[in-house]
Structures are given as C-alpha cells and as structure tokens.
Design goal:
single chain; 344 residues; mainly alpha; two-stranded antiparallel ribbon; 47% helix; globular
Length: 344
C-alpha cells in the first residue's frame, strides 16, 4: 500500500466513512488483528495437506516440489479442489484429490503462460512496428516529439518522460550510438519504440489525436481502432501476469478487451459472450492475430495439443464454450485460404 494511504486507525465508535474518511477508506470498528501464524517446515506443510484430506502418496516428491515451488504459490492451484469450509476455517479437499492433480494443474498453467507469451510477443512487436511506421510517415523520424499529434497533454508529458527514462536506462548499442551521435533529445521513433514496454506502447497509441491515424494502424489487423485500444490495454495485463509467473488459466480479469462486432468478418461467431472475464475470448483474438502477423505459425495447434495433454484441466473454467472444438477458429484447417488457416 502506498505510504500516503497508510492511515492511523481510529478505534472510537464514531470512526466510519460517514465522518469524512479520506480517499474512500472505510474504517471498521476495532483494530485489525496481528498476523500470528508461524512458518512451517516442509514436513509440516505436507501434514497439513494430509489433515485436510489431500492424498500424498509420495512424500519425498511432494517435499521436493513444495521446497522449490512454495506452498502459498501452489495454494492457488488446489483451491478448485476444495470443498466447503468446516469449523476451523480450513477448507477440506474433495474426496480423491491428490497432490499430483494439483501439480499437473500448475504445470499446465506454466506451459500455458509460455504459449501465451509467445503470441503476445509477436503481436507486440508487430504493433510497435506499425505505430512507428505510420507516425514517421505522417510527421517524420521524431514524430513522438510532436505534441500536436496527441490528445491529452498531461498524459503525453508523462509518457514522454517514461520513454526518456527507458532510453537513459538502455544499454543497447544502437541506442548509445543514436544518443551520442545526434542532437535530438530522443532517438528516431523506429529506434525509440524498441525500448518501449507494451504498457507504454498501449498508452501512446490510445493517446493519438486523430482517429484516422489510429485506424491506419488498426487496419493492419482488420480491426476497429477502439477495439485495438482496449486489446492493447488488456494484453498489457496478460503480459504482466505471465512475466510475474502468476496464475493465468482460470483467472477472472478486471480489464477485458472490447470484442469486435462487425470486423473482422466471422470472428464474432467464435467468442463466448457468456464468459467475458475469462481467458477464452483473448485466445480467440490471439489466434486471429497470429494468422495475420505470423503466417505458417503452429500456435493454435500447440494450444490444442496442450489441452489434449492435460485432459484433467476443464476448458469450461477458462471460458471455453462446450462446442469450441467445432468452431471455425479452432477446427480442422480448410483447403481454401481463409482468415483462420495456419498457412499463407
């Protein structure tokens, strides 16, 4: 929590939101309790799992994984196996739950994150390229230094400062060459974009002054520019989850992409409108964009293969509709070219 939001607790009965608590903070009667749980040894952690009803047939193997993966990290993967809580506040596991099942779900999510990162990387590089290409042809090599191209000047100032910081921190030879050879405060846009994070790129794109310029970039992907704005924001969240090795497979997202309504043609039939906060719709968009940016890719087939290798992972928990394997975007490749084929 930011230091400015850490407030002294008022333990008096009048302390409440009604009495002008700043920043929307709600005070509760009484002090928060101190954390009093002691650390446990690996053996104690295994014993706890056994008491809660998990089957651990190989204690040595379980100890190895708990030693390297962290009990608290794995906890996010055994929550789907928990039954209703009982008297002591600890949830018991459903009958038949085994440590290997939890480990299998963890391994699936790790492989899943790597596959997602493979797609996000290629799409990010493509959008970087389009952003730099179109802006440079509109306003020249240093278009990013022209304030008139951007809507919100306060956001522009922050984004420009952030980009300057990335340039200063960079140890790339091409950045050093450009900053020591030329007089402009930043390298040309096609070089500066290479040190941008996806979050920065998302903000620069969204802040472009004219819709027509955003649309020129979005036309590369046959999308409406507002769809691309929301998608980049969403993919920034996805990328950060993957980069921090956090649980992804059944996460419910607070930042979701706007789904295309008309274009690209045929895409809307593949979405699951009943699961807007789960990962499935993101996968549909990634598969579509991979077809545009990387003709000949096997990403879609790798995703299907990953699900096939982990039959215990329920696709419904990720937002997959029941008939997903029969949808055009996931089905057998057609003989004639289409937006969904894995070949040029």
């Amino acid at each position: 929590m930011p230091r400015s939001l850490i407030l002294p607790l008022d333990n008096t009965p009048h302390a409440s939101r009604k009495n002008g608590a700043p920043w929307g903070v709600t005070f509760f009667w009484g002090l928060r309790m101190r954390f009093a749980k002691p650390p446990e040894t690996i053996e104690q952690q295994i014993d706890r799992l056994l008491r809660r009803g998990m089957e651990v047939p190989d204690r040595i193997a379980a100890a190895h994984f708990l030693y390297h993966l962290n009990y608290y990290r794995l906890r996010g993967y055994w929550i789907p196996f928990e039954a209703a809580g009982e008297g002591d506040g600890e949830h018991r596991f459903r009958s038949g739950t085994a440590f290997d099942q939890v480990l299998g779900l963890y391994i699936f999510d790790r492989e899943f994150r790597l596959l997602i990162m493979d797609a996000v990387e290629r799409i990010e590089v493509s959008v970087r390229t389009q952003w730099a290409y179109h802006l440079s042809h509109v306003q020249g090599p240093h278009a990013h230094l022209d304030r008139s191209l951007f809507s919100h000047q306060d956001k522009y100032s922050g984004d420009l400062a952030g980009l300057a910081n990335e340039v200063d921190r960079s140890r790339e030879d091409f950045i050093r060459h450009l900053t020591t050879t030329y007089s402009e405060p930043l390298p040309p846009i096609w070089a500066a974009v290479e040190v941008m994070s996806l979050g920065q790129l998302s903000r620069w794109y969204a802040n472009l002054q004219t819709r027509s310029l955003r649309q020129q970039i979005a036309d590369t992907y046959r999308m409406d520019e507002q769809v691309l704005v929301s998608l980049l924001r969403h993919l920034t969240l996805i990328r950060n989850i993957c980069a921090h090795h956090s649980r992804l497979w059944n996460r419910r997202f607070t930042i979701t992409p706007s789904l295309p309504r008309k274009k690209p043609a045929g895409l809307t039939r593949c979405f699951n409108s009943g699961a807007p906060r789960q990962i499935y719709n993101t996968l549909v968009i990634l598969a579509y964009l991979m077809n545009i940016t990387c003709p000949g890719h096997h990403w879609r087939l790798k995703l299907r293969g990953l699900l096939d290798r982990h039959p215990d992972v329920p696709p419904a928990a990720m937002g997959f509709p029941a008939d997903w394997q029969h949808l055009e975007c996931w089905g057998v490749l057609e003989e004639s070219p289409s937006p969904w084929t894995d070949v040029p």
